[in-house]
C-alpha cells in the first residue's frame, strides 16, 4: 500500500510541498511535511479523500511560521485494499453485517 500511496502523493502534491515523514503500518498512514500555505494542506487532504483507496483522512496539525513563511502539517488516514473496499460497500467488514442484522431484527 505504501508505495502506491507515495506514487499518488507524488502526482497530487503541489511542487513546493515537501514530505518530512511518511509511515504506514497495517494500512494506517501518517505523514508530515511543509508547504507555503494552509490552502495547500487543504488541497492535499481533499486529494487524499478523493482517492477511492483512502478513508478516514484527517489533518492532525497545522502550524504557520509567519517569519519563515512556512506551513508545517501532519495528516493521517487509512489505505484500504480492494477486498476491504468491497466488504465496506457490501456491509460485511468489521461487524457491520452483524450490526445491520441486529437493526433489522428490531
Share of helix among residues?
A: 40-55%
Beta-strand fraction estimate? 35-45%
Q: In angstroms, what separates the terminal alpha carbons? A: 39 Å
Q: Per the principal axes of the C-alpha atoms, what is the gross shape? A: elongated
Figure out the total of helices: 4
Rg over C-alpha atoms, rounded to the nearest angstrom: 17 Å
The count of β-strands is: 4
Give an overview of the whole structure:
The chain is α+β, with helices and mostly antiparallel strands and 106 residues long. The chain contains four helices and four strands, in the order αββαββαα. Strands 1-2-4-3 form a four-stranded antiparallel sheet, with helices on one face. β1 (18-25) and β2 (28-35) form a beta hairpin. It is elongated, with a radius of gyration of 17 Å. The protein starts with a helix and ends with a helix. The model is unreliable at 96-106 (pLDDT under 50).
